[in-house]
Amino acid sequence: MSDEIIATTRKWLERAVIGLNLCPFAKSVHVKGQVRYVVSAARSEDALLDDLERELKFLAEAAPAEVDTTLLITPEVLTDFDDFASFLDLVEVVLRTQGLSGTLQVASFHPDYVFADAEPDDIANYTNRAPYPTLHLIREASLARATAAFPDAADIYERNIETLNELGLDGWRALDVDAPAKPKP
Does residue 94 sit within a domain? Predict the structure, then answer.
């Protein structure tokens, strides 16, 4: 099952994130094989916190040339977006507790992601929609280098909204990057 989840997540990364250039920094680390995909078997927030702490430590100690970023995929926990959003406060506590604030940061993606000022069906939400709840662990130094090399980094968010508005919901669905439907019991 983990292989299928990783394959679905990789397809989302390739077709949506890289294919639509939603993150101009993603292609380089993907092509170099520096993205670590980890599927959490956690079924509770406490177990997920353990996985998160382990993966933060792993990334902090790994050579950037080997592993530059990690996608921690959580298919069994935090499937409700409100629970996921609340959990992000704990993520910040873990970063501070481990002394990793300023060294690593965590970006969030969820199948039902909704920005605070957006309607649920707003296409702009799709910039942060992934097939599964996902915590993207990022090295601050790598992000700083990437944004320095990208002249208009501050404009990425607006460009992404423009791209998604042009694509539309039907275009997003045509990318076929959502998680497969779970079989009904």
Answer: yes
